TrEMBL record:
Belongs to the WD repeat ELP2 family. WD repeats lie at residues 57-88, 123-159, 302-333, 530-561, 581-612. It comes from Cyprinus carpio (Common carp). It is found in: Cytoplasm; Nucleus. Pathway: tRNA modification; 5-methoxycarbonylmethyl-2-thiouridine-tRNA biosynthesis. Pfam families: WD40. The keyword Cytoplasm applies. PROSITE patterns: WD_REPEATS_2 (PS50082), WD_REPEATS_REGION (PS50294). This is Elongator complex protein 2. SUPFAM superfamilies: WD40 repeat-like. Coiled coil: none annotated. Keywords: Cytoplasm, Nucleus, Repeat, tRNA processing, WD repeat.
Length: 745
């Protein structure tokens, strides 16, 4: 079998914002739900897969558990908000016990009798919704059941087989827990008793998990250690004391500060040396036990957006990507090599913007500066602080002088913080840190002024990717400018190759609001307004030579603006299509330029991809006076709505152009295109690769961007020129990076 053309280099995602959506398997893989997919994760590999689909519930499925009945048989139980529990099973001699926790504050036990599950017992005690239940096995005839609730308590129950006859106690009265007894036909009499009640959390307890069984010698033993996770932002590891048997708190870990709302569930590694929690905003939190010192420490773990990813951009050197999403965050990812290891993995090392509006677009303006737009009328400009540049230099093993060039790092602010109830990131300088420290020492913590405290920045000296706690509070970038001018929510942004001009467009239902605004990146003043379209401009792109600005719109047309060669360099309309001359019949979603500025491409909901230019001239677009801009390719039908398109900045070995097309169904397809005089046959296009089911997004591809330099980020060597990298953003909350060997196409 031939090797795949596209190799998945990185997948950024997080867990769904729902309880108990993460599971840690005995083989070491972590499985978690992300959007409508299941992700399998270990420190080096991330894949998406589905083995079977079970249909039957009429409402959302909120809990799933499984039991291996034999090497080839599996019993799956699923609970839904439609008030039903469904079981998917095969016949077996095993008699499983099913525990269900409900919003009636009770735990119900079901036993399989004559092929049907029948309720035999109800356990009372909790005073609010039961959020999670889990079994553990101890010995041959003993089961332990843990349950947690919104009453902030955990209850541990013991289920055991009663002897046929029990001797009558002749001694004085003995304090004994009440036994709930039930009969199982053919298997005798069983009892359930309350073992202990664990109180330690200060808010709802959403998740519990027993330490997995481990092999000791020739037997499998179940350690009696129970992990719990709560909305109070802590996880607790519980266990009985060896001497007294009393259950006590063994370990407590968690978050301090931040704007999160606690943990939704927890899991433990098979060996018991790592514990994992997933939080309200989907983030995974991993701790490992230092075997030498016995201390629990935070570990590096995968992260990502918890809502649709709307836009992404590479930095000009191709060393990192910045993404924005409907989860109201801006995130920065870069490759990293662990100490003593050769594998390169991508990680989030900064969260420059945590906003109060859904993010929609961004564009890089230089290496450490970007402009972002959200569901508001304002554009915001951010610049990297000194703490980020130093941390990035450490993680990427790049000298500071190379990163900054002639810029003086001493002039940069140390970091940024967000004022209480504010949306703007405020710069924090070294002097602010000193005064902040003394102020905190003198203030009364319980004073009224501290009820809504500012999220204070603390400088980091990073040599590895930061934890979620630090990403939330200590990796913000200062906001240096606000740009006002649009009348509705922002939709798209673009900047020229010289990083001197930024173009912006907002949502529009009338022509007066659909104008493109141009901004100077030196003064941040508005330069010009470019009216042409009648509906929202969906995407824009400057030509690599900086002379032209291309815009595509919901009105099914495109416009091309040319910059005059004489100061003050205003743009004027050079070419456009109208409703009468348009080739596309539906919304044009995306556009891009070839690296030589000779051609540009448009992609549309009508499933068409078209390349435009001065056909046959060989000149850059806009350089031929009197020459019209016409289709230079045959119309490519990609079979589905083409929501994203991007042209690779490097030619294939046969001098053809390489294009990536993202579809509404989540697939990414690679095409090669060569100019041809005969467009009737469609021979100018050739399909050369596509993502398979595991590599594709599961929802719409929102954005595609090629790395601006050849090679794979983080790698070195002459052989790297044979590779290119493609980044994609999807409505399925996922960011992906693909390695493509262009020399083999």
């Amino acid at each position: 079998m031939a090797a795949p053309v596209m190799d998945t280099c990185h997948v950024s995602c997080c867990a769904n914002r729902t309880p108990n959506v993460v599971s840690w398997g005995r083989g070491g893989l972590i499985a978690f739900g992300t959007c409508n997919s299941v992700a399998l994760y270990n420190p080096q590999v991330l894949i998406f897969t589905a083995c079977a689909v079970c249909l039957g519930h009429s409402g959302p499925v909120c809990a799933v558990d499984a039991l291996s009945l034999s090497s080839s048989q599996l019993l799956v139980a699923s609970a839904s908000s439609d008030s039903t529990v469904k079981l998917w099973t095969c016949s077996s001699d095993t008699v499983p016990v099913l525990a269900c926790g409900g919003d009636d504050s009770r735990v119900h036990l079901y036993v399989q009798l004559n092929g049907q599950f029948q309720r035999l017992l109800t356990l009372s005690g909790h005073e609010d919704w039961v959020r999670c239940v889990e079994w553990a096995t101890k010995g041959k005839n003993k089961l332990w059941l843990a349950s947690c609730s919104q009453d902030c308590l955990i209850r541990v129950w013991r289920l055991f087989a009663k002897a046929a006859t029990e001797p009558v106690q002749q001694t004085d009265a003995v304090l004994k827990m009440k036994e709930n007894v039930f009969q199982v036909s053919g298997d005798g009499e069983f009892a359930v008793t309350l073992e202990t009640v664990l109180a330690g959390h200060e808010n709802w307890v959403y998740g519990i998990h027993w330490q997995p069984p481990c092999v000791k010698g020739d037997s499998v033993e179940q350690p009696l250690k129970l992990l719990s996770a709560s909305v109070d932002k802590t996880m607790i590891l519980w266990g009985p004391e060896e001497d007294s048997g009393m259950w006590v708190e063994l370990v407590r870990v968690g978050e301090v500060g931040g704007n999160t709302l606690g943990f939704y569930g927890c899991q433990m590694s098979p060996d018991g040396f790592m514990i994992l929690a997933h939080a309200f905003h989907g983030a995974l939190h991993l701790w490992h036990c230092d075997s030498n010192q016995g201390e629990w420490r935070p570990s590096v773990v995968i992260s990502g957006h918890f809502n649709a990813v709307q836009d992404l951009s590479w930095d000009p050197e191709g060393d990192f990507i910045i993404t924005v999403g409907s989860d109201q965050t801006t995130r920065l990812f870069t490759p990293w090599t662990r100490n003593g290891r050769s594998e390169i993995t991508w990680h989030e090392i900064s969260r420059p913007q945590i906003h109060g509006y859904d993010m929609q677009c961004l564009t890089m303006v230089g290496r450490f500066q970007f402009v972002s737009g959200a569901d508001e009328k304002v554009l915001r400009v951010f610049k990297a602080p000194r703490n980020f540049v130093e941390s990035f230099a450490n993680i990427s093993c790049t000298p500071l002088e190379k990163l900054l060039g002639c810029n003086d790092i001493a002039d940069l602010p140390e970091g940024a913080s967000t004022p209480a109830l504010g949306l703007s990131n405020k710069a924090v300088f070294q002097g602010d840190l000193t005064s902040q420290s003394s102020q905190q020492d003198s203030e009364d913590f319980n004073s009224l002024s501290n009820q809504y405290k500012e999220s204070y920045f603390q400088p980091l000296k990073l040599t590895e990717p930061p934890t979620e706690d630090d990403l939330l509070q200590n990796t913000l970038w200062p906001e240096v400018q606000k740009l006002y001018g649009h009348g509705f929510e922002m939709f798209c942004l673009a900047s020229d190759s010289e990083r001197t001009v930024v173009a912006s467009a907002c949502k529009a239902s009338k022509s007066e609001h659909a104008a493109i605004l141009l901004w100077s990146t030196t003064s941040w003043k508005q330069l010009q307004s470019l009216p042409c379209h009648s509906l929202t401009v969906t995407q824009m792109a400057f030509s690599p030579n900086g002379r032209l600005l291309l815009a595509v719109s919901r009105d099914r047309t495109w416009s091309l603006w040319r910059r005059d060669k004489l100061p003050p360099l205003p743009f004027s309309l050079y070419a456009n299509t109208s409703k009468d001359t348009a080739v596309h019949t539906r919304i044009i979603w995306s556009c891009d330029w070839s690296s030589d500025s000779k051609y540009f491409v448009t992609s549309s909901r009508d499933k068409k991809v078209i390349i435009w230019g001065h056909c046959g001239s060989g000149d850059s677009v806009g350089e031929c006076e009197g020459e019209s801009v016409t289709p230079c390719s045959s119309v490519l039908d990609v079979g589905d709505s083409a929501t994203a398109v991007s042209i690779c900045p490097y030619l294939c070995s046969d001098q053809s152009y390489l294009l990536a097309v993202g579809l509404e169904n989540g697939k990414i397809v690679l095409y090669k295109w060569r100019p041809s005089e005969d467009l009737s046959s469609g021979s100018d296009w050739s399909r050369c690769g596509e993502t398979d089911a595991c590599q594709s997004h599961t929802l719409t591809v929102k954005r595609l961007r090629w790395r601006p330099r050849p090679g794979r980020a983080g790698h070195g060597g002459n052989e790297e020129r044979a590779w290119v990298q493609l980044a994609s953003a999807g409505a399925d909350h996922v960011v992906k990076i693909f390695n493509i060997k262009i020399s083999a196409l």
